[in-house]
Amino acid sequence: MAEPKKQVPLRLSAKLYDAIAAWAEDDFRSVNGQIEYLLTECVRQRKKNGRHAPEELDVPPKLDLK
């Protein structure tokens, strides 16, 4: 059985929403589906670049300012 999804309130500017909506339409997705797809791809890319998300996702990563 698939893991239940969390509901997250999200506020976007009208301009950003319109851009995502147009992109979603091009990709035959809903706006919600497009946002989920984009976030998933960003996390995948971050992991690919060797920068893993912390175990506790609500804790900001420590910055190395050397």
TrEMBL record:
It comes from the Bacteria. InterPro entries: Arc_rbn_hlx_hlx, Ribbon_hlx_hlx. Residues 47-66 are annotated as: Disordered. Residues 52-66 have a biased composition (Basic and acidic residues). GO terms for biological process: regulation of DNA-templated transcription. SUPFAM superfamilies: Ribbon-helix-helix. This is PTS ascorbate transporter subunit IIC. It comes from Candidatus Faecalibacterium intestinigallinarum.
